[in-house]
Amino acid sequence: MLGMCRGRRKFVAASLALIFIPALTWLYLSSANFTVKPLPLSPLDPQSSVLIGAAAEHQDLELQLRDVEEHNHVLRREISLPPRVPTHSSHHSNSRQGNQLHTHSTEEGTGDSEAKKGVASGNSSDCVPQPVVNKCETIHIAIVCAGYNASRDVVTLVKSVLFHRRNPLHFHFITDSIARKILADLFHTWMVPAVHVNFYDADELKSEVSWIPNKHYSGIYGLMKLVLTKTLPSDLQKVIVLDTDITFATDIAELWVVFHKFKGQQVLGLVENQSDWYLGNLWKNHRPWPALGRGFNTGVILLLLDRLRKLKWEQMWRLTAERELMSMLSTSLADQDIFNAVIKQNPFLVHQLPCFWNVQLSDHTRSEKCYKDVSDLKVIHWNSPKKLRVKNKHVEFFRNLYLTFLEYDGNLLRRELFGCPSETDHNSENLQKTLSELDEDDPCYEFRRERFTVHRTHVYFLHYEYEPALDNTDVTLVAQLSMDRKSVVQLDMGNTKKALVVPAFETLRYRLSFPKSKAELLSQLDMGTLFTFRYHVWTKGHAPTDFAKWRTATTPYRVQWEADFEPYVMVRRESPEYDRRFVGFGWNKVAHIMELDAQEYEFVVLPNAYMIHMPHAPSFDITKFRSNKQYRACLKTLKEEFQQNMSRRYGFAALKYMTVDNNS
Length: 664
Description:
Largest sheet: 7 strands, mixed
Distance between the termini: 67 Å
Number of strands: 19
Number of helices: 20
Strand content: 5-15%
Helix content: 25-40%
Shape: elongated
Radius of gyration: 35 Å
């Protein structure tokens, strides 16, 4: 509101300037008693024979007039544009404003039918207050997410929302068992302040929509947005519903504030569909579901849940779907077809959003007409099966924006919302307390901080099926291992403390015919295609494996711990974890093997298992180790501290670890 009022003050000031400045100029020139002539633009002009003093005054006046004219020109341009309310980045120091988020009105931008007609153009004589979102108001977001792929996609969406947000958020996930496990672990380890998460079992909802035949690739889950009024808590009044293939480029509070603009019986906020699908002209005999004009896209929906329940939404969409399916037989675009059929019969239900709230990047869309510049974008919707390979003249910008959030370190989003009360997260509180006790001036601060940092965990990033073994001998693979011999059972791993050593080899070739048997591996070893791992730079790391004995071994054999031993091992789940102080390059496996030995684990070499290290570019951390003296000094300090800890925990038995060469 303040911005609009100031805009009108500028209009009045500009008008007065346009009227009075020419008059004042005429009076000034008349009182000087000389004829008005074209002012000299160059000292070489033959007309510049006027007195030097007068010429100087003329030049000063000319410069002033030009400055005023340029300023008036800018003001005219501002006046001709629709008024904009300042965003959060342009707040003034008013204390009340500091607790509120100012947003753009829905009349801005292309794609809004009222704006095109000139309705609410902002030229009225009074300053109309614009709706705002209270700083501490919780924004509710509902997302249907099922399976491994959708779980990966939704994380990128969530990161884009968290990056821009300034309000508490409450996510409502309708998930299958896979997505629930993934996302529950993710948010538990993420520990983002002022974020709440609830899960709703999608399997319990299947019966509500399974009777609807659906050709869309989203399957039965693509219909579940229809039953959100029944699924979400009865006291939840409104919610923003998002597809998983959405990327936000602005604060979601700007979308939440649009609820204040709903009028009458409007209960759905939607953006017009930007393809010609519902016009029925994409191919011969193309027959889409009924829709109002171009129809609406349901990738972004504003739902007024309380009003929808009063309107008996469940009955409304069911009757519509039953009627249309008698002739259409199935849906092509899942819930979107049914939403549009309902709106066709009841157009008063919809509040049309400007199309920058859902820029649809499928092929053959009018999305490029939604914005004049990519900076105008609010929400990007990858609603084509092609996803990042879709055709658009700005697709490189969109792709880079998506990849930015895909690769963004989610740990950086753990920022507090100051001034908003929130429930105490004891895990987060304890972590912050521990980190605050560290000395930030310590040259090894980053190493010490990493030891206590809890990293967000995304389990089952790829498709994964697992059924626990009844005899407690199931194995988790943490590397590429040859597991066609289950030594696990023979060596009674479930009841004894053993670390199974997998002999490691390496090749310097980027292409290798992987040996399918031990005999093939020995042949490649003899020909020089393979080598024992790190034999030429760090023999101590794997020497205790005793490769000479392994060549002829047919049964597992035991080896003893030696200084700097760092084999690849298979151990029980209950075994000691890696010491977190050793991040990056250096001593992580050495310390772990030392801990296993201290706890009296037996190191048993598997005679028919092996692994091969393939060549790759040096890691960032090994580069730092080689080039940064301080990095190496910190690593040496951490080794000494670890050895001292071992001595305190294991007493006299740990004396042998104190003699390990710290230069390793």
